[in-house]
Amino acid sequence: MKVLVTGAAGFIGFHTIKKLLQSGHNVLGFDTINEYYNTSLKYDRLNEIGIDRDKIFDNEYTDSHKFKAFRFIKMDLSQKSAIMDLFRDEKFDTVIHLAAQAGVRYSIENPDAYIKSNIDGFFNILEACRHYPVKHLTYASSSSVYGNNKTVPFSVDHNVDKPISLYAATKKSNELMAHTYSHLYKIPTTGLRFFTVYGPWGRPDMAPSLFTNAIINNRPLKIFNNGDMERDFTYIDDIVDGIIKVNEAPPIIDPKKAPYALHNIGNSTPVKLMDFINCIEKHVGAIAKKTFLPMQPGDVQQTYADISSITNAVGYIPKTNIETGVKHFVNWYISYELKQQQTSTGIINTSKKAIL
Ligand SMILES: NC(=O)c1ccc[n+]([C@@H]2O[C@H](COP(=O)([O-])OP(=O)(O)OC[C@H]3O[C@@H](n4cnc5c(N)ncnc54)[C@H](O)[C@@H]3O)[C@@H](O)[C@H]2O)c1
Question: With bands split at pLDDT 50, 70 and 90, how would you rate the model's confidence at 102?
């Protein structure tokens, strides 16, 4: 299949592309490489899949030197006519739309970025799928749509009309917009509500990286809601497995209803935040200095996915427990940090090397 993956330089997009290429698909990666977090991590991810930083130019294709079936294009979701041309020229079989302005806390200070990328940008992808039909559009939603819902596990059948952050509101809007396009234009769409994804090459703004970084550098880590939180942490390999299964199984076109599906994709085993931190401490081999703080605006106390709909639809079963996932993540984090440090100073900090 010829697959467009947006958010290609991002955490989940990068891993998804790697897996698609290993399975023999032809892939175009799309990303604007925004500066929400350090772009060097994004360029390093792209480099892993054969895209050289110095060969990337706005709105131009870059060939991978590692995978014949992979090309990358640096393009922004706001460029509607360029996106239309891209869809017209490429004739994608399927689209995996992961590009978005992510992050709950950032949406409090920077609301504009969310409207531009997650609302206008999503609309542009829908319009392109309408004019240049694809067999399936799979897109990223989020567990944050559940807001302060108290009934757990969170089910796709629960009402989610009360988002508590603009980020969540944009993701819920995407689900509504997708339904409209599935209904009106028979575009098969599937929304995936991701639950706190972690693993190697993970996002530096998320708890696993923030915690590991603070422990390694002996800085206090900020623990919100005094640690009284639970998250359904989901390992990246399980997420990618689910995305790929879903991509290959579009909702059936039936004259009586819209070809529309929506699933939670989580681990379905919530973990107490303090247990997660203990697990990181164990694998780093150091104890964290902890600063306990109140709840952050927009944050939720608990997430817990009911995954029955995705299990029934495509046989998704998460396989990675926290112990194994955190071990892989911490090992990657420390070796990546050491490499960065060595590149910039030529010296390895021996206390960190000892940790590794
Ligand atoms: N990681 C998680 O735990 C999690 C949880 C829930 C939902 N999600 C959603 O999953 C998707 C992927 O998340 P991620 O963790 O890989 O995030 P990420 O920030 O690492 O990746 C997103 C990528 O999208 C790109 N992007 C943003 N705006 C763009 C625009 N206007 N045009 C083109 N590219 C643009 C960014 O440059 C970035 O590389 C996002 O839609 C996110 O909201 C992630």
Answer: very high
The answer to whether residue 165 scores a pLDDT higher than 50 is yes
Bridge partners (DSSP) listed for residue 221:
290
Task: Label residue 299 by pLDDT band (50, 70, 90).
Answer: confident
12 lines ligand 1 (CB under 6 A): yes
Which atom of ligand 1 lies nearest, measured to the CA of 42?
39
Q: Could you tell me the domains of the chain? A: 2-195+234-266 (3.40.50.720)
Using the mean position of ligand 1's atoms as its centre, give its distance from the Cα of residue 102 in Å: 5
Q: Is the CB–ligand 1 distance for residue 77 below 6 Å?
A: yes
In order, the DSSP letters of 200-247 are TT--TTSHHHHHHHHHHTT-PEEEGGGG--EE--EEHHHHHHHHHHHH
pTM of the model: 0.97
Residue 199 Cβ inside 6 Å of ligand 1? The answer reads no
Q: Which residues are catalytic?
A: 167
How far is ligand 1, taken at its centre, from the CA of residue 123, in Å?
Answer: 16
Rounded to an integer, what distance in angstroms lies between the CA atom of residue 288 and that of residue 274?
Answer: 11
**C-beta of 32 in contact with ligand 1 (< 6 A):** yes
Q: What is the pLDDT of residue 310?
A: 98
Q: Between the CA of residue 220 and those of 31, 293, 337, 350, what are the distances in Å?
A: 34, 12, 18, 21
19 by Cβ neighbours in 10 Å (0-12 / 13-18 / 19+) ranks as middle
Task: Give the three-state DSSP class for 111.
Answer: helix
CA of 47 to the centre of ligand 1 (A): 18
pLDDT tens readout for residues 223-232:
999 999 999 9
Separation of alpha carbons 48 and 22, rounded Å: 13
pLDDT over 60 (residue 356) = no
Total residues found in the chain within this entry: 356
Q: Mind listing the pLDDT tens digit for each residue in 57-98?
A: 999 999 999 999 999 999 999 999 999 999 999 999 999 999
Evaluate whether 209 touches 333 at the Cβ level (below 8 Å).
yes
Interval 269-280 mean pLDDT: 97
